[in-house]
Amino acid sequence: MAVMAVQTAELREALERWFGFPTFRPSQEEIVRDVLAGRDVFALLPTGGGKSLCYQLPAILTSGLTVVISPLIALMKDQVDALDTAGIPATALNSSLAYPELRRRLDGLERDEYKLLYVAPERLTLPGFSDDLERWNVARFVVDEAHCISEWGHDFRPEYRRIAPLRERFPGVPFCAFTATATARVRDDVVSQLGLRAPAVHVASFDRANLTYRVQHATRTVDGLIRWLRARPDDEAGIIYAGSRANADKLADALAGAGIPALAYHAGLDAATRSKRQEAFIRDDVRVMCATIAFGMGIDKSNVRFVVHWDVPRSLEGYYQETGRAGRDGLPAECVWFFAYGDIARIERFAEEKPEGERAAARAQLERIKRFAYSNGCRRRELLAYFGETYPHAQCGNCDNCLQPRASIDATTDAQKLLSCVYRASAQTGSGFGIAHVIDVLVGAKTDKIDRWYHDRLSTYGIGRERSRSVWRNLADELIRLGLIAQDPARHNIVSLTDAGRRALVERSAIVVREPAAQPSVTQAAGRRGRSVPSSGADDETYDRDLFAVLRALRREIAAERDVPPYVVFSDAVLRSMARDVPRSPAELRAISGIGEKKLADFGARFLAAIAAQRD
Ligand code: ADP
Ligand code: ZN
Predict the structure, then answer these.
(1) According to a count of CB atoms within 10 Å of the terminal CB, is the N or C end of the chain lower?
(2) Residue 519 pLDDT
(3) What does CATH list as the number for 8-203?
(4) How far is Cα of residue 451 from the mean position of the Cα atoms in its chain?
């Protein structure tokens, strides 16, 4: 393996020429250098961190073939399309190819026409494939999504175990492993399973500065979700994660019924339907995907503008991975968890029903995710802490708790009223009531239920008249959060006092709660503008939206002609820059980050014409 010593200037020039980027993202340059130096590499970068460039740039700069092992055909196809469009010769071999096409690619490989080859791990053990590789002059093996090799990860692929034997067959060829998800245990496992030799280890920050994190504690309704979606620009695509197939279907139907293009995606659908729907999402043909976590790894779509969690994420790690699918292009994106207390209680019950051996782990995961949801602190800080990283600022300025801090207030008197009302309503009859009924009693409402149970005779009837229902609702949520009131999901979420609640009532303890969150406004984007602390660096607010729409339509047209996803032509970030800078010449166009030589040559004229037409 020829060891290359390259100058910074040379690297920058290649980056600019082939990818059109003026600078490296954090860790990219160091990784590229280690790959070029022929070292084994283990690199852990967050989703959207720009892993592919770390091996694609070295592939261009060295002789020989870079063999990339990738778990999914869809991912390979995306990568090859993207490389093709950038003018970098690449191909993939997989089981979906018809013989003539396969033959064509194999011939190309024999003729040394490609810099990169993508393959599934299964192929590695096909008879004769190693001999083929010998002839093709392999410069390095790259293992993408390397966590798939570990049983400790959440995407274990037994086929990945077929990679290690290559080491013996190709003792002189370096191995590079890339992943976005690895705990320390998975990291060690990857290194040992692949037999990496004194690897250069790179662990980039897991901070995704362009993602806004919010946990929305307001009452969760499908209508609320629809309003939230309607308030967003209708050219924004996103994913809604539901906890079950039924919920995914239900949400997709509701959204479609409200005129929002949406589809469901889950493991209950047949493979053909799944891939058709995934394709529709990737190609910007459908706006919203309502999905279970079955939807994820194959999604390289860079312009996912929001990720909503409708149910409780399985774990904080899962939450981070799922939200991580938003904003890969580096532009601002929203991650909102529509939180409902009842869900937590339900999951708590599931955790208790698990077999003895798994119970403790399930409880611990739930505790973490619960702490995150209930926290008053900076969410980014907490997420990063979970991955063992210390966020260097006290506040990120880009999560709900930083954007709209909630003050603590002494709510002892109101809390006493509420606790006492819960106590009386349930004690009187031995039957149970939900929180909505308790609040009806407090505000002195007249309902059938109140009549039927003579609840207007309770001493707490109407004692909370002076406050609105939503104030009581927030207080109830807070008392649930503080563990003073319990909800029983097995019995229609009926409420009762916990031991702590009873004690607080008897002892008249002081109770401090958080003020209600400012109603998440429709114009949440406004929060971004006021952001002070670290920003993603993408100033996206000042671009011509009409021009952007025109450019987007042109991008879609070109993508359809070439049969590739739109973001392969240009990312949203590139189109926004065009709509902001309004370039008039090829040189001005070329100055935009993300437009390399090949794309300028292929698409420049059409985009300049569209911009000129719009300007007149
Ligand atoms: P990952 O595989 O780590 O999730 P990708 O390789 O798909 O990330 O890159 C994510 C996005 O970032 C892509 O749209 C890519 O073009 C872009 N990107 C990568 N490197 C850079 C860079 N140095 N400057 C600007 N954008 C970059
Ligand atoms: Zn924050």
Answers:
(1) C
(2) 53
(3) 3.40.50.300
(4) 49
CATH of the domain spanning 408-514: 1.10.10.10
Region of 447 (left: φ > 0; alpha: ψ -120 to 50; beta: rest) is: beta
Q: What angle do CA 335, 339, 345 make, to 5 degrees?
A: 140
User: Class of the 541-615 domain?
Assistant: mainly alpha
Cβ count within 10 A of residue 231: 13
Scanning the structure block, which residue is given the tokens 């399309």?
A: 81
Segment of 173-182, 501-510, 553-562 carrying the highest mean pLDDT? 553-562
CA distances from 435 to 279, 440, 449, 484 (A): 43, 9, 13, 13
Q: Is the CB of 24 under 6 A from ligand 1?
A: yes
Can you tell me the distance from the alpha carbon of 173 to that of 614, in angstroms, rounded to the nearest whole number?
Answer: 52
Mean pLDDT of 107-120: 97
Average pLDDT over the chain, rounded to whole?
Answer: 89
Question: Which homologous superfamily is 211-403 in?
Answer: P-loop containing nucleotide triphosphate hydrolases (3.40.50.300)
Per the DSSP assignment, residues forming a β-bridge with 237 are 304
pLDDT computed for residue 408 by the predictor = 84
Q: Is residue 521 pLDDT above 50, yes or no?
A: no
Task: State the first-to-last Cα distance of the chain, in angstroms, to the nearest integer.
Answer: 56
The confidence band for 358, taking pLDDT boundaries of 50, 70 and 90, is confident
State the pLDDT confidence band at 311, using cuts at 50, 70 and 90.
very high
Residue-by-residue DSSP string for 74-121: HHHHHHHHHHHHTT--EEEE-TT--HHHHHHHHHHHHTT--SEEEE-G
pLDDT digits (tens, 9 = 90+) for 318-341: 899 999 999 999 999 999 999 987
The minimum-distance atom of ligand 1 relative to the CA of 567 is 14
| Residues with C-beta atoms within 5 A of ion ligand 2 | 378, 380, 396, 399, 402
Give CA–CA dist 6/192, Å, rounded: 30
pLDDT tens-place string over residues 53-62: 999 999 999 9
C-beta of residue 515 within 8 angstroms of C-beta of residue 477: no
For the CA of 47, the closest atom of ligand 1 is 4
Classify burial at 35, counting beta carbons within 10 Å of its beta carbon; exposed 0-12, middle 13-18, buried 19 or more: buried
φ/ψ (deg, to 5) at 187: -60, -50
Q: What residues does 118 pair with on adjacent strands? A: 68, 92
Choose among 513, 548, 560: nearest CA to 410: 513
Residue boundaries of the structural domains of the chain = 8-203, 211-403, 408-514, 541-615
Phi, psi of 66 (to 5 degrees): -95, 120
Cα-Cα-Cα-Cα dihedral sign, residues 459, 464, 470, 476:
negative
Q: Is 45 in the pocket of ligand 1 (CB under 6 A)?
A: yes
- pLDDT score of 482 more than 70: yes
| Cα→Cα distances 570→253, 291, 587, 593, Å | 31, 26, 17, 10
51 lines ligand 1 (CB under 6 A): yes
Task: Determine the pLDDT at residue 440.
Answer: 93
Cβ of 49 closer than 6 Å to ligand 1, yes or no, is: yes
pLDDT surpasses 90 at 601: yes
Residue 36 CA neighbour count, 13 Å, CB half = 21
211-403 against 541-615: fold identical: no
Mean local confidence (pLDDT), 449-475 = 90
